TrEMBL record:
Signal peptide: 1-26
Recorded superkingdom: Eukaryota
Family matches, as PANTHER family: BURP DOMAIN PROTEIN USPL1-LIKE
Protein name, UniProt field: BURP domain-containing protein
InterPro entries: BURP, BURP_dom
Assigned keywords, A-Z: Signal
Pfam families: BURP
Segments traversing the membrane: none
Domain BURP: 66-285
Amino acid sequence: MDNEFVSYSFILLLLATLAPGNVALAASHMEDATGVTSTTDFDGKHSSSHMGMGMDDLVNPAAKVFAFIKDIQVGKTMPIYFPYVSDPASFEFLPEEKIHGIPLSSEQLPELLRFFSFSLDSPQALAMKQTLHMCEAKPLEREVVGCVTSFESLADFAQRFFEPDSRPRLGVLRSSPISDTTPLLQNYTVLEYEEISTGKIIPCHNEPYPYAVYFCHFQPDTVNKVFMVSLGGENGDRVDAVFLCHMDTSAWDAGHISFRLLGVKPGESEICHFFPAYDLVVVPLPW
């Protein structure tokens, strides 16, 4: 296909070249799963399996991802949580031909479990069930959602909403992964930052599955901003992170953790958050 993804020099991972593999091997990435925790997501609307917030979410270190635009000033120091990704390859799309013909359907979950050799009562089966439920759930009002399973389907999804008649080039932003010696939560100092895009931005969240499945959502009438921020950790490591800002939070649930953490109410301020390395943001490029 002729969709072309190009990158800024500051974009850390462009999914234009994907590691080879096969679906059977991809299933092994879930073998160490212990279950799925349904949580409040970064964007105030959908659940996510990655951020382990529960009853004590206000003191959970994984909640240390929210901030305001004013917080990304050079020299500013703040505590930020970045989860460790032990196998970054498990979050990369497999080539389209490797997954072609494998349905992403809860109706066919029993057949899929047999295909991947997972038992009905296994943690992997629960993870797949919840991911398929999310992919098939009815979207909220004025929101477009979809699950993508390949680089090609991601491009097709994005091109539908970024001025399809002009077919703009699209960039994929992703945070750099931390090392296995980096503290999950530590103080980071802003070293530099760059605003990448304002307006139509598509965040996509990786969901637990035997191969890479991303839940993408888009609100045509909502303006967002996305930045790339270079951060220096207390331990000397550097992280280049995606920083997404939702400029209109008036329709968000008043109980969302970000409001409690930042001390604001729906519609009073933008809400921004740092992205983990396993999620991504699609933006139109200006050339």
